[in-house]
Amino acid sequence: MPNFPEVPSIGPEAVPDDLARQFIGGAWRTGSGNWDVIDFNPWTGDKLAAITVATAEEVDAAYRAAETAQRAWAASAPGTRRRVIERLLDLIDEREPFIASLITAELGGTRTRITYELGLIREALREALHLPLRAEGRILPSPVEGKENYLTRLPVGTVCVISPYTFPLFLGLKTVVPALALGNAVVLKPHQSSPICGGTLLARLLADAGLPEGLFNVLVTDIAEVGDVLIEHPVPRVICFTGSEVTGRHVASVAGGHFKRVVLELGGNSALIVLDDADPGYAADAAVFSRFMDQGQMCMAANRVLVDRAVLPEFTEHFLARVSALRVGDPADPATEIGPLMDARYADHLWGQIGRAVDGGAKILHGGERRGNLVPPTVLTDVPAESPLHREEIFGPVVLLTAVDGEDEAVALANDSAYGLSGAVHTRDIQRGLRVARRIETGIVHVNDATVADEPIVPYGGMKCSGLGRLNGDALLDAFTDTKWISVQHGRTAFPL
User: What is the pTM of this model?
Assistant: First the structure.
């Protein structure tokens, strides 16, 4: 069990004043809107902060600050950018107890989830250290006599990042820091449910790490206040959005109309397949992690577990034993493994999905009563084939257990979804696992592992309605730099006219 010996309790009086403001041009500012985003603790219901929203005026100020600061940053030496990331890594270590307390207070994060997220953050930052030196150029030959072709990568300029409430610190950081490392400026709009962990905390860390003023700006606001100005504004050239498919479609439509590049990480409906030759106990362990990490509030989470009938009894026994043993309750308790959902709206929606499935004929193998924002780990089986729950994203600790007859049926059911983010296949035959993995219509498939994983050098992204573009590894260069062709004629070209 992770140990945070000095984790303070975070309440309204413990949230630093600057973390409840906008961060624009290196200064903490109060928004000029006429209403506040209220940040609540999802377990206690306590108000953590009230942040006056940014208006279109602040959006313009943030983009202009970014545009001005980016020019010198793009011309800076790669070592200058590396040093900021090195210091940021040190600050993550130095302030780990405080960061952990914020994740618990604002997000309902358990100690297990915090340890997992901080591990992902550190790996992403270690890889980002190399990015300033990876925007390499090339010299290519030419069919024209006497000519050379130079390819060079240049920063795109300013990047807009719109982040989600799920793992907001990690998902914000894994986009923001690489964009900065490659010489860009960034304007970040965190989700209204996680304005601190998803926005102002990162602003404080980067400022203290020595990032020059104006390069990173945080706007806490809402589309009801600013409309599409975040996307339509002329300064940002790349829009990175993580969130729902519906909003992602809108972002892509607006950005495309203004010839802006988009990177979209949208919903998922991942399937974990257990074939007839799998290790049922190990597969059950992988399924528990795949579904219930962070209360199932992850786009990669396994909504559906598809198990061959040959191993279904043994798998179900292991799976239900593990689910029954999950400790549910106060996320501040180090023993808790399942905490509350982020908001009553999300809990209401999930509880409605369960109710409709049961009304339609599904059976509950494991479940319980909802308590506020806490929905207990729930296992559903015999969900009718026509039930929308097979095809919807399930954002919470609810899983569908479905029997299949052979790998063909398993693949067909896995692919019967508009989404295509992640998946997993369990088998003792690795070559068989690879064959099945290639047939699954998702951007990510893991053989003999969980559906949940993120590694900083491997391109990450989905197919179908799960998004556009990739992040991590070399994909970051494609996302945050432009390739420019410069030719040099050392002789004289013979022109046809």
Answer: 0.95
